[in-house]
What does this fold into?
Amino acid sequence: MRRKEVRPLLLLLTAAACLLLMGGCKENVVQEETRAPATVSPALIQQAAPAATAPRPTPTPAPSPPPVPASTIPTTGRTAYLTFDDGPSDHTDRILDILKQDDVRATFFVNGNATPEGIRLYRRIAAEGHAIGNHTYSHSYARIYASVQAYKADTEKLNDLLERAVGFRPDMLRFPGGSNNRLADKAGGKGIMRRIIGSMEAEGYSYVDWNVSSTDAAQAVQPTAEIVGAVLGSSRGKRQIIVLMHDAAGKTTTVEALPAIIDGLKNQGFRFDKLSRHSFAFRFADARTGATPP
Ligand SMILES: [Zn+2]
It folds into this structure.
């Protein structure tokens, strides 16, 4: 029995000794740890010093390359081009307010409005960085599609007004009704659209249709939810979208839908840009031949 008692006692003693040693060691470690910052800090400071200066070379490459036009930057993500036809209208200010708030640039395919209010709105559109395209002065199918000369005259009339208002003549067109509309034939005969397109392109104009319709022209007042759903639904699966919307009297729900459209497209990974003759273009004629990707 006694022997059996001695062993645990010995074990206890060694355990105690070990604990003491470990305790001592631990204390040393703790001391070193607490001391560490004091002794290591100069080294850290030396290491930190280059780190602190490291960002210095970083700003240099950023501004050094010459500014590249946005259109030539390879598109890695998805790009949405919002377009507003038929303005300026009594909704233009509100549309511009929303775009400004969301820091979005868009494209306005405008008609003729020579009133002081019209001039003010053209100027605000341009001043806030949006693109302006020519959607004819009168938007009257019977007038503009009567002949090639009639179309050209109506377009030039608007460009004369825009030059006075904003100082430049847009070279981008959107045909009222789109480049494949059938109503033009009634005014100018079969093949009038093809002749107008050929002639306007020869004059140096480019034109663009759309590959996403907001459906806001489907009826007088299309419900807001329908507009949002149409845009977000048909945008899925497309890398680049040109969205047709209207900046026109009575199109109240287009304005109401706009914030949700912008949010929804952002959630789908789209960034926003304005159209130019060098940017993505979607033309119905090209789509028929498969020349333009969706
Ligand atoms: Zn229109």
In short: Residues 85-86, 135, 139, 176 surround zinc ion (CB under 6 Å). The mean pLDDT is 81. Residues 33 and 92 are 66 Å apart (CA to CA). The first strand starts at residue 78 and ends at 85.
